[in-house]
Amino acid sequence: MGNIFGQLFRISTWGESHGGGIGVVVDGCPPRLELSEADIQPDLDRRRPGQSKIVSPRKEADRVQILSGTFEGKTLGTPISLWVKNEDARPEAYTEMATKFRPSHADYTYQAKFGIRSWPGGGRTSARETIGRVAAGAIAKKILYEQYGVEILAYVKQVQKISAQVDVETVKAKEIEANIVRCPDPKAAEKMIRLIESVRRAGDTVGGIVEGVARGVPVGWGEPVFDRLEADLAKAMLSLPASKGFDIGSGFNGILLRGTEHNDAFRAKGGKVFTKTNRSGGIQGGISNGQTIYFRVAFKPVATVMVEQETVDIEFKNTILKARGRHDPCVLPRAVPIVEAMTALVLVDHALRHRAQCG
Fold this sequence. Notes:
By secondary structure, this protein is of the alpha+beta class. It is built from 8 helices and 18 strands. It has helices at residues 37-47, 107-114, 130-148, 173-176, 186-201, 229-238, 259-262, 332-358, and strands at residues 4-5, 10-15, 21-27, 64-68, 70-71, 74-75, 80-85, 151-159, 162-163, 208-215, 243-248, 266-269, 272-275, 283-284, 287-288, 293-299, 308-312, 318-322. The strands form 6 sheets. A 5-stranded antiparallel β-sheet has the order 1-2-3-7-4, with helices on one face. Strands 9-8-10-16-11 form a 5-stranded antiparallel β-sheet. Strand 2 (10-15) and strand 3 (21-27) form a beta hairpin. Helix 1 packs across helix 3 (130-148), helix 1 packs across helix 8 (332-358) and helix 6 packs antiparallel against helix 8 (332-358). The longest helix is centred in the C-terminal third of the chain and has 27 residues, at 332-358. The chain is globular and about 65 Å long. The two termini are 32 Å apart. The model has no long low-confidence stretch (mean pLDDT 94).
């Protein structure tokens, strides 16, 4: 029913924004992996609200608990259940939304599809659902790094018209985490923070681009035709709340080049094949070619704005709504660990599929 992601490494997320909590069941994790809450919590801390002045002020510790699937600090190969309690839910802030549809939210479509919806905070459509993805993604990242040497990073590349200059081959995690907007370009980061603060004061929101990077991915991950690696990455990213676009490698800018300019020339050295350029973004024919994988995800401005907007109510009468509650003026800083998590989930699934088919 759309709540399950992956084939061999499979996750199923559950929970609503203002319910008892958010969780995920991870199935297919290899046994004997050392795993504790301490392996998962750092990424949840990067995702949680209330961490800076440019994100939602909702106060949640987002402390994860492992309920099953481990014994004596190691995975059993059985389903791993993870749970985070909701502690600062305030459903009363959304009372008006029980009868009025918020513009550009999923209120109307959920009501039309199911005939019922959890209106406090958007319920299942809230970005709080991504807690489960990030928790599962932390396990996937651990497998990828320890067993394959794969490093996964993401960072804010652009906020509205402010764009950062970042080298995908050399960018480091400490540079990304050096500021609250998670942009490794310090000068661009300062401008981004000022812009986000200004739109927050105006009761408005702003969008932008998160760039994802996976370094050290071996040759051969990905499946022909329908399960191309970039196709699964695209689905993963476009399943995220507020995401509106995906491109990889040269992306849409590749149309500005001719084939002779765009092709990545092959070379060999020491018995290994590499490409002189990487406009393919590390994937050719849907299969990883050993070069760095890099891509971009566009996120729209947050739909909840603190000004009056036209809408309709549940009786389909025209009305006015001014949103309340606690919301991000820009999703990008908190989207960074979510993009990393979804990247890891795709790659670990394909790593296991490759091992199963090709050894």
